[in-house]
Design a protein that fits this description.
heterodimer, A: 869 residues, alpha+beta, 6 domains, five-stranded antiparallel beta sheet, 25 strands, elongated, B: 546 residues, alpha/beta, Rossmann fold, 4 domains, seven-stranded parallel beta sheet
Chain lengths: 869, 546
């Protein structure tokens, strides 16, 4: 579809007309920048223009403007409508001109045009009405410009006589027509020369008052009997009373005093993000790789810690503060960092709540026997076991990809939400839809620096603030804090923890991570915020599946590419350790998995980092024996994996423990202790600490206990024995550590705000569809088909007509008869009383269903008024 | 190529000793990292604030520290760790104590907020006087030690540049006839003198007394020497007469029996800390002369009251001598702030390699308890358990076997429990030295032992410290003060003095198997293994049979 037919016609009279004149590419740009306009696909350009003017959509579009584009919009909102480009330039650059503004303004206006916030030619720029309402100053919503109402508005409530007095006091020729009187006054105020002359006569005090109000807020308090200098100002309309006791500085006066500038300072250029420190790229990559390895190891350690069932899920969801503390201690990290690791594992789908699923219980129960309702706990998912099988680099890639796309923000953990609820790790209310965009934008800024260069975090934050200034009174975060800034800070910290950056500079792997992911925003820094009313509506089925795909399934190919980049930087896993006489083993690098696992059972980890220090203790050796190893196994294992001879004390330790291990055997059925060596039993019986176990000698080699077997085991161990449990058949019972897993779980989907960004195919199709619909609706009118009100037949009207009728009905409160096709394609007729028409939906009281319902307009086949037959 | 050092996130440094760069790396990190363990393959160093400040006091800066780590590290050093190091080092020296021509002792700062911060502390307020200017505040001269201690606790250690009084001059020279200070001893003296005050860490048997003598020869001033006990005091005297120009008359002994105050006075910790009617009557010793140097022997044993006196001695030069900075009571920071930073440190193994101390063969002998002993052990009260297993009859038999095995060699049997020692003495037909043995008898027995007139001596823990038995080649430890690591090191020191014939020293530890004796032994030996003394384990039956 081309625009030849309309090209070159007269200036457009409405936004719809202008849109009709635009080419397909520019429509596509509009739809890409404001994807909410596409849900659902509008029938024609009129509908598109209407939707682009709805409040929700305009608020969202304004929220996405950079500082200067927003300033331009604010300036337009205080300019007379329509304003010429030149007038706009004057408002931003001031009377003296400003080269930077001149350079940046065309771009800003183009942005506003592309977003359909501004339309009309350069001579007649118009801000979309809703935007104007939002940005224009009013007593309730002061404008960031600090300007008050125009003279015409300020004097609208004034009696004609009073206006006459003003005219005379200002030295203008009197006229009886109030309208021309006001415009004469406006003319005077906007004429710099005459105005200066007028002010030259002003009392000094009066100028002082003006000076205080110049940059806003423009309202001031006066007493019932104002002082002379105030009276001087009031008499000339330089101050206008708005309500008893309050006066306002008219916009034109303020602009005169400001030298024509709508803003005290303009920010035409984005603040630069200069390199703050330069490192050799090799150092950066190596540091990042080291941290990447640490990240993978930490997540593994976390889930190992929770191997046999993690902490309980709070009733309200999430991890209790105490459990988070405990986890932080286990990971040897501060709590916020621990929260990050927990959330990262969650986002990557490696851990989840088990939903109260009861795993196999331990052989003897945990002491208090009897049926118990299984407590809901956190645990590793089956996906974790698969993840563990991957090479380290791929494990990292999985984490990094999940991190970049996640909307969960661990940085919020420990804080409170708008309802003063404490936000807990893994708990609800941690999703922030803006997070992925901020993350990407921060990394993009780092990517803009030369390789190896780190940025000053404050510069990054300043740039982000410029790109998305917070509009006064438009904070979407209930806490009122600048969420974007906090997100950006967290991003910098988290990127370093994860090894996406090293020493503050983006690593090569980090760059690759940015290069491609399905969530890539084409315009770099467009993010969504605010809340959407669209989620959950049937209209979105089509999109939500797409979105589910993009966010969830992982991207094996991409992850492998990333991993391939990272892998050469990671140290090769080792197959050996160094054993020392002080009963330690040092692994001077990461170990191969089976080796690390066995060693982890046989010895306690003493120090972590690039290397791992293990310490052998009687307890750790016994643990290995309990896990079914024999002393011979352990000796062979150590010999095979040690680079150096096994130190004698270590061999002795293993033999010593093994000699005593299993020496005592304890049965479950009747809780007995038996031992071939009856003196040992004598020893136990003689020990006072055994009293609690209530032991009785049955035979020279057997003791019976009243205590349950588990307590018996513990008791004897605490007395320094190494008993082992036995089965009814008399074999040693091996109790391997029981792995606790959740049922299959999918990782949480990021919760993006608003509809997903349409891809090019969809955009093309949408534009074609809109054009086609538009052709149909604007084609030379045939005689309008008589509304068929034959019973049983759905009313059919064009979408423009439907919309108009609906809107009219909202105003009149009339009930309408509509035809409606539901998501399954079933047609029905309903009688509704529309309450609100917005964003492509009509909310109405449905008389047929007797409740308030919301219908997507595009499913309404037609509408007819009631009561005609 | 991969470096020899691995920097762990918990601030330990692992050094692979077989690596070709290991030596260079060790030298680079030794100034700021404390050697924690030195087993055969991988040495563990630890980065602590005190260690970093020690380095800073010795003139190293953060950049050198970071460079050393980055240079030798095998893996990238975590950025956070480097930042932390730089910040920690930077804390030292922001505050300095110095002499002001008009106001006397002052605390001044190059960083005003730091001064403000510490002055706000309640613990600092009583120690300081008027503010002279925004960066300087007067300190009561008597509180020089107190304020250093307090500032260290606040994390802002002050550099003490206030200087020292010279003290009463007294000529002391080393009498280097036929011997000379060993190179490391010279280095230690030099480092100490240059630093003003501080601690020299040398292994037992490495000649700490001579470092003290060297320092005195530098100071050429009256000297107060504080030692652990009377025997040790006599040895100091003996050694000083032999090695320096001092005569017997110039050296006084201030102990329970004698109260001499001479230009060089040797006092015991015990007499100083004796309390009568709530006061320390012997404190006047510190003020009795204008001391130019105070030497603290065995700093790691310095009793708490001595710290308190030392706080008042900050204007005098102080030399601490010790084999280890590890204090079982964890008061290392007081040593740092009151005596001074570490000025010299040499690992045992290195000095052993230079031939100055004898290599030792450490053997743990495991003894099986008899059935009746096990039963008795099980029924013993918790607090009696150690005593019981440490003094079993089986142990005695094994000890006798060991003594027989080393017949003809000078053998020490060391133990904790007097009745056990008496019994052993009776069976071995050897004299017993214990707490009640008079000093005269002790010295006579030591002399006889030195002369070889007696070859076996049974000693209690009174002989733990500072006795010199040059010809003891075998030490048999039958029981110890539970798990004291420091005691183990001292006892090993008994046999580490170089032997005339270059004979290898033996150190036996007799341990009852499967009892807490074994647990304590493991704890003590861990210290030895960490010092690089690999020990063997042997079964008692091997000795009993053979």
């Amino acid at each position: 579809m081309t625009t030849e037919s309309t090209a070159g016609t007269a200036a457009p009279r409405t936004l719809a007309e202008e849109l009709r004149q635009r080419d397909d590419a520019s429509l596509a740009t509009l739809l890409r920048a404001r994807p909410d306009l596409l849900s659902p696909v509008p029938n024609d350009l009129t509908q598109l223009a209407t939707r682009a003017g709805t409040r929700a959509s305009v608020v969202r579009a304004l929220g996405r403007l950079d500082t200067f584009a927003l300033q331009a919009a604010e300036a337009l909102a205080v300019a007379p409508e329509p304003a010429s480009y030149e007038a706009l330039r004057a408002l931003l650059a001031g009377d003296d001109g400003d080269a930077a503004v001149d350079g940046a303004l065309p771009g800003a206006v183009a942005t506003l045009r592309a977003q359909a916030l501004v339309w009309g030619g350069d001579e007649r720029l118009r801000l979309v009405r809703t935007a104007r309402e939002l940005l224009a100053p009013s007593p309730q919503h002061p404008s960031p410009t600090g300007l008050g109402p125009a003279v015409a508005e300020a004097t609208s409530g004034m009696s004609p006589g009073r206006v006459q007095q003003l005219i005379e006091a200002a030295g203008l020729t009197s006229t009886h027509d109030a309208v021309s009187a006001v415009s004469a006054l406006t003319e005077l105020f906007t004429d710099r020369t005459r105005m200066s002359a007028l002010l030259d006569d002003a009392p000094v005090d009066a100028l002082d008052v003006l000076g205080r109000l110049t940059w806003g807020p423009p309202y001031g308090q006066v007493t019932a009997d104002p002082a002379a200098h105030l009276r001087w100002l009031l008499d000339r309309g330089l101050l206008v009373p708005t309500s008893p006791g309050t006066v306002v500085l008219p916009r034109e006066v303020a602009l005169h005093l400001r030298g024509g500038r709508a803003h005290r300072t303009t920010h035409p250029l984005p603040p630069e993000v200069p390199p703050a420190a330069e490192h050799r790229p090799r150092v950066v990559d190596a540091t990042a790789a080291g941290q990447a390895l640490a990240a993978v190891a930490t997540v593994e350690e976390l889930l190992k810690e929770w191997h046999e069932g993690g902490p309980a899920v709070l009733r309200a969801g999430g991890l209790s503060v105490r459990d988070l503390k405990r986890t932080a201690v286990a990971l040897d990290a501060p709590e916020p960092t621990a929260a990050f690791w927990v959330e990262l594992a969650y986002a990557a789908g490696l851990l989840a709540s088990d939903g109260g699923f009861e795993g196999a219980s331990s052989p003897y129960g945990e002491g208090d026997a009897g049926p118990r309702r299984a407590e809901e706990r956190y645990a590793a998912t089956p996906a974790y076991d698969d993840w563990l099988e991957l090479p380290a680099a791929e494990r990292w890639a999985r984490l990094a990809v999940a991190w970049l796309a996640a909307t969960r923000t661990p940085g919020l953990v420990g804080g409170r939400d708008g309802k003063d609820r404490v936000l807990s790790a893994l708990g609800p209310h941690l999703d922030r839809s803006g997070a992925p965009e901020v993350r990407r934008r921060v990394l993009d800024l780092l990517a803009g620096l030369p390789q190896g260069a780190a940025a000053d975090p404050e510069a990054v934050l300043a740039r982000l603030r410029w790109e998305r200034p917070l509009r006064v009174g438009a904070t979407s975060d209930p806490s009122g804090d600048d969420l974007r800034t906090r997100l950006a800070r967290w991003t910098l910290d988290e990127a370093e923890l994860l090894g996406v950056t090293g020493r503050g500079a983006l690593s090569a792997t980090g760059r690759a991570l940015l290069s491609d992911t399905p969530h890539r925003a084409r315009e770099g820094h467009r993010t969504h915020d605010g809340h959407t009313a669209l989620d959950g509506h049937s209209a979105l089925e089509g999109h939500s599946t797409r979105e589910g795909h993009t966010a969830r399934e992982g991207h094996p190919a991409f992850e492998r590419t990333l991993a391939a980049l990272l892998a050469p930087l990671l140290p090769e896993p080792l197959d050996h350790v160094l054993l020392q006489a002080d009963l330690t083993a040092v692994a001077p690098g990461p170990l191969e998995r089976p080796l690390a696992e066995t060693l982890g059972v046989l010895a306690d980890v003493e120090s972590k980092g690039g290397a791992t220090v293990y310490r052998f203790t009687p307890g750790s050796v016994r643990r290995a024996l309990d896990a079914g190893r024999t002393a011979t196994d352990l000796h062979t294992f150590l010999q095979t994996h040690s680079r150096t001879p096994v130190p004698q004390p270590l061999s002795y330790l293993i033999d010593d423990v093994a000699r005593r291990h299993g020496h005592l055997r304890i049965g479950a059925a009747s809780a007995y202790v038996r031992c071939d060596d009856d003196s040992v039993l004598g020893e136990i019986l003689a020990d006072k600490r055994a009293a609690a176990l209530r032991l009785r000698r049955l035979a020279p080699t057997v003791l019976a206990a009243q205590a349950d077997p588990a307590a018996l085991l513990d008791g004897l161990r605490s007395m320094g024995f190494a008993p082992s449990a036995e089965t009814p058949e008399g074999d040693v019972l091996i109790a391997p550590a029981h792995a606790h897993r959740t049922p299959p779980r999918t990782a949480p989907a990021p919760v993006p705000e608003g509809p997903p960004l349409p891809d090019d195919t969809l955009l093309g199709a949408a534009v074609r569809a809109i054009r086609a619909g538009d052709m149909a609706s604007t084609a030379p009118k045939r005689p309008a088909p008589t509304p068929t009100s034959a019973p049983g037949e759905l009313p059919r009207t064009t979408s423009a007509e439907t919309l108009a009728t609906m809107q009219a009905a909202v105003l009149t409160g009339d009930a309408l008869w509509i035809g409606y096709v539901n998501a399954e394609g079933t047609a029905s007729q309903r009688v509704i009383a529309p309450v609100r028409v917005e964003g492509g939906f009509v909310t109405a009281y449905d008389h047929t269903a007797d409740e308030v319902r919301t219908y997507p307009l595009h499913r309404v086949t037609g509408v007819a008024e009631l009561g005609e037959d | 190529m991969a470096g020899p050092l691995i920097v762990q996130s918990d601030k330990t440094l692992l050094l692979e000793v077989d690596h070709e760069l290991a030596d260079a790396c060790r030298r680079a990190i030794a100034p700021f990292a404390e050697l924690e363990r030195a087993p055969e393959h991988i040495h563990t160093y630890r980065l602590t604030p005190l260690g970093l400040w020690n380095a800073r006091a010795a003139g190293h800066d953060a950049e050198q520290v970071v460079d050393a780590l980055v240079e030798y590290s095998r893996y990238p050093v975590p950025h956070a760790l480097l930042v932390d190091i730089a910040e920690t080092i930077d804390r030292y020296g922001r505050l300095t104590l110095s002499k002001h021509p008009a106001h006397g002792l002052v605390l001044s700062s190059t960083d005003r907020p730091v001064l403000e911060e510490v002055l706000k502390s309640k613990r600092v307020t009583p120690l300081v006087g008027a503010r002279i200017d925004p960066d300087t505040v007067v300190v009561h001269p008597s509180e020089r030690g107190q304020i250093k201690q307090t500032l260290l606790k606040l994390g802002w250690p002050a550099e003490d540049l206030a200087g020292y009084v010279d003290g009463e001059a007294h000529t002391i020279d080393l009498a280097e006839d036929g011997w000379a200070l060993r190179p490391y001893q010279k280095q230690a003296v030099e480092n100490f003198w240059h630093g003003g005050s501080g601690v020299v860490v040398l292994p037992c048997g490495a000649g700490k007394t001579l470092v003290g003598a060297g320092a005195m020869a530098q100071a050429k001033a009256t000297t107060l020497i504080l030692v652990t006990n009377t025997v040790s005091a006599r040895q100091w005297k003996h050694e000083l007469v032999r090695r320096t120009s001092l005569t017997e008359d110039e050296i006084g002994e201030y102990s329970g029996t004698k109260k001499e105050i001479r230009p060089v006075t040797i006092a015991t910790y015990q007499v100083l800390t004796t309390k009568r009617k709530g006061v320390y009557p012997h404190l006047e010793l510190f003020d009795s002369r204008d001391w130019g140097l105070v030497v603290y022997d065995e700093v790691h044993l310095l009793p708490a009251p001595v710290f308190k006196f030392t706080a008042d001695l900050q204007a005098r030069r102080r030399l601490g001598l010790t084999a280890t900075l590890v204090r079982e009571d964890g008061r290392e920071s007081d040593v740092f702030s009151l005596i001074g930073p570490k000025r010299f440190d040499a690992p045992w193994k290195e000095i052993e390699a230079q031939g100055y101390i004898a290599p030792a063969d450490c053997v743990e002998v495991r003894v099986n308890l008899t059935e009746s002993e096990r039963l008795a052990y099980a029924t013993a009260e918790a607090e009696e358990k150690y005593r019981f297993c440490a003094t079993t009859a089986t142990k005695r038999k094994v000890t006798e076997a060991l003594v027989r095995k080393h017949q003809g060699e000078q053998t020490l049997v060391i133990g904790q429990y007097i009745d056990q020692l008496d019994e052993l003495g009776a069976h071995l037909d050897a004299p017993v030295i214990k707490g009640e043995t008079t000093n005269a008898v002790r010295e006579k027995l030591f002399d006889q032992f030195r002369e070889g007139e007696i070859s076996v001596l049974v000693v209690s823990k009174v002989a733990n410290f500072s006795i010199d038995l040059p010809e003891a080649t075998v030490a048999i430890q039958v029981s110890g003060t539970f798990g004291s690591r420091q005691e183990e090191a001292q006892r090993l020191g008994r046999v580490l003095r170089p032997k005339a014939d270059g004979h290898e020293a033996r150190f036996y530890s007799v341990v009852a198997r499967d009892t807490i004796d074994q647990d304590f032994a493991a704890h003590r030996q861990r210290f030895l293994a960490e010092q690089g003394y690999a020990y063997r384990i042997a079964d008692a039956d091997d000795f009993l049979a053979g």
